[in-house]
Amino acid sequence: MVYTLQSTRQLHDGIEIPILGFGTYELEGDAVKRPLRWALETGYRHIDSATWYYNEKQCGDTIRQFMKDADVPRKDIFYTTKLMTNVSYEDTLEKIQASLEACGLEHIDLYLLHSAIGGPEKRRECWRACIEAKRLGKVRSIGVSNYGVAHLQEMLDQGVELPAINQVDLHPFMTRTDIVSICHKHNIALEAWGPLVRGLRFRHPSITGLAEKYNKQPAQVLLRYSIQNGFIPIPKASSKERIIANTQIYDFELTKEEMAHLESLDEALVTDWEVTTCP
């Protein structure tokens, strides 16, 4: 299949999402403004923020200024943010409203529960609030992040609306085949929040070998793997050079054998945060 920076995929709720996102984790406050502006100028239209990133206002300000300067309509931007802590139904609705006011973008395209931490009751109530916020038009799509098989099965058992997306740490060194399997079975799209393995495996011989073969950077090989697997990678970069390079992944294709080999590298490598098995 031929992909481009403008490629989108349809979520099970009918919403179109760009298949490559720009991550803003660890770009707190004003630190996000310049990299995000570069990303938007490069052609990224899918921006991933979170209350926990402390940059929702700055993301919104930068996006709105770019839309004005470049005459880009709001419908061309896909903005994601996330609930920091699962507390209650009312608290979640308040937090969604606060996030909406912080970004100033009319609506939130995708709202995620950042984790399953808090237990079954809080998860259920916070998800119920997400469904209500979607009904009210404050958010367009709703999903979860860092949900494991047990958390997704819990939702299936409850018979509630299923998340459009589960955003987890996914890469060749953490393939999470059990989570991928249940998401595929129920048409839940997968976003990869750590597709570049935080640079920890850029020198792995399998990665450098493919990079040399295709005249690409290790990061580009990892992003291509994610795209070809049907994931939606959310790479973060702060330099203009890397921001641009992370989009140059559409002029080569890994073979089936190469994809299978990359899958075989799984070592359950945790790069940052691992809560998919929390109670």
From TrEMBL:
The keyword Transferase does not apply. SUPFAM superfamilies: NAD(P)-linked oxidoreductase. Substrate binds at H114. The active site is at Y53. The record marks K82 as: Lowers pKa of active site Tyr. InterPro entries: AKR (IPR020471), Aldo/ket_reductase_CS (IPR018170), NAD(P)_OxRdtase_dom_sf (IPR036812), NADP_OxRdtase_dom (IPR023210). CDD domains: AKR_AKR1-5-like. It holds the Pfam family Aldo_ket_red. This is NADP-dependent oxidoreductase domain-containing protein. GO terms for molecular function: oxidoreductase activity. Keywords: Oxidoreductase. Transmembrane segments: none annotated. Belongs to the aldo/keto reductase family. Residues 20-266 form the NADP-dependent oxidoreductase domain.
